[in-house]
Structure formats: structure tokens, C-alpha cells
Description:
Blueprint: H1 2-28, H2 32-102, H3 110-170
Helix pairs in contact: 1-2, 2-3
Amino acid sequence: MDSYQTNVLFLSHEETDMARFLKDYAQMDKTRAGKMMASVSKVLAYTAQQRLTLRTPLLRLHNEIETFRHRAVTDTLLTVKRMETARTEYRGSILWLKDASVQLDPEKQLEKFRRVQSQVKSSKTEYDRLKSDVIQKIDLLTASRWYITIFIYLFFEFVSCFFSVICIHIH
């Protein structure tokens, strides 16, 4: 992105220099060619200025995409991994409960069965909480991705309209 920004800046400066060059020679040439050089110099100066104004939205877009990639996606991945761990613990506690219920001696092991039941309940609660978090984060990722996509679409639609208008004015 830095290379692109540098190249846009360089191109804008080159267009500005070319516009000055054409303007200077247009002032010396009083023929129709001089008028055309003056018109082209105005267009070049304007496009150079507009090219510089495009740098800010492009930088904003780049920052939003990087934030999306590095923060939102990474955070969601960590939450998914925690949910998978909680799911494994929950399934393990269910198997433990099954074993405890098969070997249940009502007089001697009722307390152990209640402890296992409590463990299943707490692991189920944690798993459900993390599952809900994952669903919410995935929904937010989807909404963010759509926001970025719409922003890109509108931005490039604006740019294409802008340059098509300039092309129409040149002809």
C-alpha cells in the first residue's frame, strides 16, 4: 500500500509539472494549439489534484481491511477455538455422567453422581455461552465484510464516474 501511495503521489506531481509546462507554452502560443494546450493543462492540473484526494479514502479502506483481518478475524478464531474446547469438555462430562449413572449405587455414590451432574451443567452453560458468542461474532464479521464491500463499490463507482466526466469534458 505504501508503494501504491508513493506512486500515486509521484504521478500526481508529474501531472502537475506537465500541466505547468503546457500552461507556460500555451501562454506563448496564441494559436488554436495554444488554446488546446491551456485546456489540457487545466484538465491535468485538476486530475492531479483529484488523484491526491483519492489517497485518503484509499488509505482509510486499507486501514479498515487490515483492522478487519488482524483484529476481528483473529478474535473470532480465538473464540471459536475456546468454544471447541468447551464443546470437548462438555462431551467428556456427558460421557463421565453416563459412566457414573451406569455404576450408580444409590446408597454410596449419590454424592459423586451429583458432582458429575453439576460438572455437566456448568460445562453446558459455558459451551452455550461461547456458542452464542461465536454466532454473534460471525454475524458481526459478515456485516463488517458487507460494509467494506459496499464502501469499495461506492468508492470505485465514484472514481469511475469522476474520470468519465473528465473524459467527456476533454472531448
